[in-house]
Amino acid sequence: MTDSSTLKVAIAQYACAPDTETNLATAERYIADAGAAGAQLVLLPELHNTRYFCQREDPAIFDYAEAIPGPSTERLATAARQAGVVVVASLFERRTAGIYHNTAVVLDADGSLAGRYRKMHIPDDPEYYEKYYFTPGDLGFTPIDTSIGRLGVLVCWDQWYPEAARLMALSGAELLIYPSAIGWDDVNDDQAEQRRQLGAWQGVQRGHAIANHLAVVTSNRVGVEADETGGATDIRFWGHSFVFGAQGETLAEAGEEPELLLADIDLHRTEVLRRIWPFFRDRRIDAFADLTRRFRD
Description:
Layout: E1 6-13, H1 20-36, E2 41-43, H2 71-83, E3 86-96, E4 99-107, E5 113-118, E6 124-125, E7 128-129, E8 144-146, E9 149-153, H3 162-170, E10 175-178, E11 183-184, H4 191-212, E12 216-218, E13 222-225, E14 235-238, E15 242-244, E16 250-253, E17 259-266, H5 269-276
Parallel strand pairs: 1-2, 2-3, 9-10, 10-12
Antiparallel strand pairs: 1-17, 3-4, 4-5, 6-7, 8-9, 11-14, 12-15, 13-14, 15-16
Helix pairs in contact: 1-2, 3-4
């Protein structure tokens, strides 16, 4: 944990360009701006090096994947070191031929690679065909130690699973972090449905904050991205990146435009809240065995 109980975090919310070079340059600019604004942590969107390519299944897209450490981590590590901030980035990891992961990497403020998290829950839904590209993670729900504390890093679809947040919390995470890429289908989702989807996305993560007494930091991208083959409906990424406090209170929320979102998190609130609302003490761990079953018939 940092010397002070207050942690200033930044979320870089932006639209991703078709080419990696432009996207890395954008990430570097946001990291520098965040450092200049006094942030100690910067979160980038999910799979920020490219457009969201999972709208279609194309074997040529595996060419986008790269090793970790690799060229992108080298550039982002330099940006982290120059700005003096911890960076949580999101990359398409090539582990070996035929094994690829959707991986969050954490670069410490000195530029060192503090750790990585491989996305555990992989969706396979219309316009989100991630199972074609990504092998489910095998590193478990393990927080990553950094100069600013223990970070419980998860990725997008993981945010719908309270078990993932709980396991990070039980392993000593001081913060829950979710790089994301999620949006609307303007053809099939009317405005009422769009409001429900956004509310559900934020609501489930507000619950993670409350149930674990941990602040939650979640990024998203913005802009409209279309399937280049014309075979899928456009996705309008809804933005609304946010920071929730340890009681689910909104500390900061972006709109639907590019933005560097800043917020101050009081890390000491976790200790205070767990003393008066001891959820962990009262968990009936003797009665939870069925959670490891797919379904209770």
